[in-house]
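G., the chain you wanted modeled:
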Amino acid sequence: MNQLRAIDRLDTGPRFTEHDAIRLNRMFRGSETEEWLSAVLRDGLAGDIVIVSSFGAESAALLHLVSQIDRSVPVLFLETGKHFPETLAYRDQLAERLGLNLVNLYPELEDLKQRDETGLRWSYDPDGCCELRKVRPLAKALASYDASLTGRKAFQSSTRANLPRFEIDTSDEQGRLKINPLIDWDADRIAAYFEEHDLPRHPLVERGFPSIGCSPCTRPVAEGEDPRAGRWAGWDKVECGIHKPGEEPFL
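Predicted structure as tokens:
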């Protein structure tokens, strides 16, 4: 089997191409998550990798998987200043228990001063708020890496139903890989994994929050609703911006 080479950090041009992502998807077709994720991390198939985690309702599953393979992988957390206190406590709990290499990312103070001095931008421009507090800080941090691991899963929403395990991050032109280890896991499999490894649940889950973001823009979900229906309810918005192509800068 042909193996993709680890990335030479001195190379110029895109790190990966669509062809590389297709090859990786074919290479590990039919492989169990633990098997192919171990190969990617231990054999350096995707170069320098980082995890992007919200420490949300199901985040512990991916964080535990990676911690069993390589605890040195950095875990990026976007500290927006708008999280539920429960999320911050859960982050600290998991970081200690799993021995995570946690890296907190913060928005630029000058950006906040110029664009969101009142801290209320979320109430009239949620896209602009996410741009300031999530998209920009993450883009700056990811510039140092060749690939990122996400916790996205196909069952979460229709917009994620057909995502592959490996794809090219379209937010810039660097050819960075975006890897979705749990994309084919359903809710039952995740629940079983939590039980098998005695992983703590986010404290807001039992209060009706199956998908947890910043507190002003997240509400509980009613029975039968899409798991992400509580995110930006009332707005024509389904993602914060870090999982879709970059948009024009906001005013």
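Residues 5-12, 245-251 have pLDDT under 50 and may be disordered.

Shout if anything looks off.
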